[in-house]
Amino acid sequence: MYDIAACTEKCGPFSFCCIAGIGAHFAISGLNDFKLLVVMKRILTTFMILAMGLTMLAPAINAQSNDSNARAAQRQKNVESWKEDMAKFKEKIHEDHQLNELADSIASIQAIAAIRNKDFVLEADNVTFRSGNTVLVNSTTNFISVKGNRAVVQISPSNYASGPNGVGGVTVQGTISDYQIKTDKKDRVYLSMNVNGIGISAQIELFISPGSSYAQATVYPNFNSNTVWIQGTVVPYDSSNVFEGSSL
């Protein structure tokens, strides 16, 4: 006789072998056992419900799987696009850096050549006075210029008052003497010169680093201690746009 309990325990109540065995048992017994009929009905009903549920869930599961795969593919595509953009950005930065280095190198060569030719202007962007006060200034009206044996020092820190020179400060000019240029082992260029004229008797020292056109100059008056420090960019005389005020 078919043992339903043993089959259920071994294969599970919803296995095909268990269901088939129960069916065969009913066929042999002539469906005399009402309890077994009820069990069989419950098993078949449960099996049909599970089958229908799986059938209904299958499209949703497939859709979720496809949607998950699509999102993963889009994320990967976004990552690859970001990597490409970063590579292009780094390449552009590298190119810009090289161009800036080239521009700085050209400007440095022009500045040093202008200094050697006594044909330059230091266009100041800041001036420091003996008191230690540093003032940001307009490079158009604050400068040291050299043209042959003539030098001009103009300091105009005020944008409001006209000053003796008419542009907010003082302008002095004089004749250059003892013009000396030295280069150290690190290719740093040093310039020293004396300037004497009406309103000025001073020694001026200028320092410029290799690969740069930015310079620092110090004006040491011979008859007082009102030392002035000037920083700015050195350009060829004819390339400058400075405005010279009225000299003392």
Total of domains: 2
Oligomer: single chain
The structure class reads alpha+beta
Overall geometry comes to rod-shaped
Note the main attributes of this structure:
248 residues; alpha+beta; Lipocalin; 2 domains; 3 helices; rod-shaped
Please sum up the structure shown.
It is built from 3 helices and 9 strands, in the order H-H-H-E-E-E-E-E-E-E-E-E. Helix 1 (4-11) packs antiparallel against helix 2 (16-29) and helix 2 runs antiparallel to helix 3.
Description of the molecule:
- This protein has 248 residues and is an alpha+beta fold.
- It folds into two domains: 4-63, no CATH class; 117-239, Lipocalin (Beta Barrel).
- The chain contains three helices and nine strands; from the N terminus they run αααβββββββββ.
- The protein has helices at 4-11, 16-29, 34-116, and strands spanning 119-128, 134-136, 143-147, 150-155, 170-183, 189-197, 200-208, 214-221, 228-236.
- The chain has an eight-stranded antiparallel β-barrel with strand order 1-3-4-5-6-7-8-9.
- A hairpin with a 2-residue loop joins strand 3 and strand 4.
- The longest helix has 83 residues, at 34-116.
- The model has no long low-confidence stretch (mean pLDDT 79).
